[in-house]
């Protein structure tokens, strides 16, 4: 099936069976179904197999240094609030090299979608442990198994009062698609942690493993209950799948904070350097 955002004549560098293919497919479907225009979509990514995603989509993209996608995405949204901005990368890129940016982006609350391909391993650099690798996971670098506590992105995001926090499993594409759509509709920072296997360098956390070690939040779950969401975020094996938290009242976004609710968007005043300086001095 063809999509508006399909890109022809590209050499996809992923291995057959990689979970990245499913994420790429869903992302193209979601933006098309939501009516996002090609010239208004910007996808920012760093380094890694997951970070290659925007190279395979017919839209605007910005490739940056390892772990630096979030501050650039924040700046792009600040520069033109009419753009639909996505920051995309893997668990190593976003939670490892980009961990500090992850924390402070949540604090700022820019109106961007943050998609993280979480395969619990570094795929591009051939299989060393990532921040989300489980304890005991053996690699060519961690020959006796990972000793560190796995990074918990959902708990960290909630501790900083992120307005939209979710986890999906790419093995359940229909559910993942609906959550991704919900994230795009959310005003403010929205995290989607996507469980997806690396079929070459991680033989433990497979499609089967993710299915057996996760469970779906049911209809009785209240995603507006912050304290309940925090408790859910601390659950491991099985991990909860779905929208853990969505704030009921919109927080002020970073763009609104910078310019003031009634001021002009930054991109409309770029000719006036004195005005730009004034905006940042006020902030």
Characteristics of this structure?
eight-stranded mixed β-sheet, globular, alpha/beta, 10 helices, 283 residues
Briefly summarize what is shown.
With 283 residues, the chain is an alpha/beta fold. It contains ten helices and eight strands. An eight-stranded mixed β-sheet has the order 2-1-3-4-6-5-8-7, with helices on both faces.
Describe this structure in words.
With 283 residues, the chain is an alpha/beta fold. 33% of the residues lie in helices and 16% in strands. It has 10 helices and 8 strands. The protein has helices spanning 20-33, 69-79, 91-97, 99-108, 153-159, 173-185, 207-212, 226-233, 254-259, 273-282, and strands at residues 41-45, 60-63, 84-90, 113-118, 164-169, 190-195, 214-216, 239-246. It has an 8-stranded mixed beta sheet, with helices on both faces. Strand 7 (214-216), helix 8 and strand 8 (239-246) form a beta-alpha-beta unit. The chain is globular and about 60 Å long. The relative contact order is 0.13.
Layout of helices and strands, plus pairs?
Blueprint: H1 20-33, E1 41-45, E2 60-63, H2 69-79, E3 84-90, H3 91-97, H4 99-108, E4 113-118, H5 153-159, E5 164-169, H6 173-185, E6 190-195, H7 207-212, E7 214-216, H8 226-233, E8 239-246, H9 254-259, H10 273-282
Helix pairs in contact: 1-6, 3-4, 5-8
């Amino acid at each position: 099936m063809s999509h508006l955002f399909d890109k022809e004549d590209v050499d996809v560098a992923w291995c057959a069976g990689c979970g990245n293919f499913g994420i790429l497919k869903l992302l193209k479907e979601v933006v098309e179904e939501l009516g996002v225009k090609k010239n208004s979509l910007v996808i920012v990514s760093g380094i890694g197999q997951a970070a290659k995603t925007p190279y395979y989509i017919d839209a605007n993209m910005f490739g940056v240094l390892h772990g630096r996608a979030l501050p650039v995405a924040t700046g792009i949204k600040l520069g033109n609030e009419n753009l639909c901005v996505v920051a995309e990368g893997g668990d190593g890129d976003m939670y490892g090299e980009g961990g500090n940016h992850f924390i402070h982006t949540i604090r700022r609350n820019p109106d961007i979608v943050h998609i993280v391909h979480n395969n619990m391993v570094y795929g591009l650099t051939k299989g060393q442990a990532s921040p989300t690798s489980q304890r005991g996971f053996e690699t060519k670098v961690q020959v006796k198994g990972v000793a560190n506590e796995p990074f918990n992105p959902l708990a960290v995001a909630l501790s900083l009062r992120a307005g939209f926090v979710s986890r999906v499993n790419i093995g359940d594409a229909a559910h993942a698609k609906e959550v991704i759509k919900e994230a795009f509709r959310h005003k403010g920072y929205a995290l989607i942690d996507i469980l997806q296997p690396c079929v070459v360098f991680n033989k433990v956390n497979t499609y089967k493993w993710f299915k057996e070690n996760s469970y779906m939040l049911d209809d009785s779950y209240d995603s507006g209950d912050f304290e309940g969401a925090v408790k859910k975020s601390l659950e491991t094996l099985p991990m909860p799948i779905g929208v853990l938290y969505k704030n009921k009242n919109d927080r002020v976004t970073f763009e609104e904070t910078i310019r003031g609710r009634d001021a002009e968007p930054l991109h409309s005043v770029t000719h006036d350097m004195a005005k730009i300086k004034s905006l940042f001095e006020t902030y």
